[in-house]
Amino acid sequence: MCVGETDEEWNALAFELAQGLSDCLGKKTAAEYYAMFIEGRENGERYLPICKDVDEEMCQKLEMLPLLSGQSICKEKSWKSVYPYGNLARRTLGYVTYLNECNVGIEGRYDDTISYHCFFNRNRIFSNKKVFVVVPGKNLTLTIDMETQKIADSLLRASTRDYEGLKGACLVLMHNSGAIRAIVNLNRMEDTFGETYNYAVGRCYEPGSVIEPAIRLAFLGSGRIHAVDDEISLSRDDMHWLIESLEKFGIGPRYDDFDVMGLPNTIWDKTDARWEEGKVDEILQGYGMMTSSIHLLAFYNALGNGGHLMKPCLVSKVWNQDGKETGNETRCPVELNESICNRETVGLLAESLDMGDGLMGKVGTSYYIFPCFFDDSYICNGEKQPQTTFAGSFKVGSETYSVLCATFSNPTKDYSYGADIPVNVVRALKSEMEAKAEN
């Protein structure tokens, strides 16, 4: 800002600039901008930050103001994702940072697919000028139904609001296709909630007894037990066989080419003392392993549809903006295993999980014990993270949906935090989806 041969001329232009900034931006008064310029000039500042989060049209307006016109203005570009549905599924929809330092969600996963690309065409050079070809990015069709998303989001918020530190996730899946119709991730942020982490995909946790039906199906299918309620005996010799069985049920490695990044592998603690000591009950309760909500729901979806293991998906189709069929890709449905077990056995197990109110499923609870640290970042004082998971399915009209709802708290000594919340959320979800289908 060096235009103006005298201080009086510069001050007059600075005041005009201050007035223009106040009119355009409305962030400060003209007097506040003017005082900032005078102070900066007296301190010998070469550059002063004026504003942020403005679009290109506003930049052009600002460049017409006194002292800015014709000058070297430092502009730093940034990307900002626009979410047409507010916070609904925000973390799953994701974003891309300007320099790709951190790409998140569907947008991050498909950034290269949906972005424009500029190529130098070596075969087209006229008058020694290079010709560049701009290729538009492709479009994505998502599986998420925003009406279902809105219902699930609202119910989970309302059910967890009165419990300090409680957070959670909810997934709704189409039975036959594996299409995810809703994916809610609520993190507690003081007095409100925010979609700041994809718990449904990225959180790997001890599932509790919600894993027991998968273990029982493995024993039933192999003939090691003959009835759903037969007693199970486990030893270390059974470990590798059981792990391989659950992998066939979808509870294993991360799924190839999943629609968002961050899906973990299922983790088994092969050194866990429970195997040595034959603590069957604790293994059936999901201790000694960690998995994700996506893996669990994939199994329960197969349990409810006769044994077909479908890959959970968020993107159903990738297609060209120009309408051409070349390069289009259908990404859903994808069958991972035609039959996880014989249909009759799957049916018997599913029938044993009938809860009598139109729900099939199971509730599991567990506690994550936090380790002790000695760097003052955490004090080991007996705190645990209680969590509850419901996984199962229900029918609405002619459609069947698989659903998982999980809630967990901050580390606490108070373990009575509302363990019935997930199944109550699912019951309310079923009722509202039925009401919606009737209208």
List the helices and strands and how they pair.
Elements: H1 7-25, H2 30-42, H3 56-62, H4 90-93, E1 95-96, E2 103-104, H5 105-109, H6 111-114, E3 117-126, E4 129-135, E5 139-142, H7 146-160, E6 167-174, E7 180-189, E8 192-194, H8 199-202, H9 212-221, H10 239-248, E9 267-268, H11 273-277, H12 280-284, E10 289-290, H13 293-304, E11 309-310, E12 315-319, E13 329-330, E14 335-337, H14 343-352, E15 359-369, E16 384-396, E17 399-408, H15 421-438
Helix pairs in contact: 1-2, 7-15
Model description:
This protein has 15 helices and 17 strands. 33% of the residues are buried. The longest helix is centred in the N-terminal third of the chain and has 19 residues, at 7-25. The protein is of the alpha+beta class and 439 residues long. It has helices at residues 7-25, 30-42, 56-62, 90-93, 105-109, 111-114, 146-160, 199-202, 212-221, 239-248, 273-277, 280-284, 293-304, 343-352, 421-438, and strands at 95-96, 103-104, 117-126, 129-135, 139-142, 167-174, 180-189, 192-194, 267-268, 289-290, 309-310, 315-319, 329-330, 335-337, 359-369, 384-396, 399-408. The protein is 32% helix and 22% strand. The N and C termini lie far apart (64 Å).
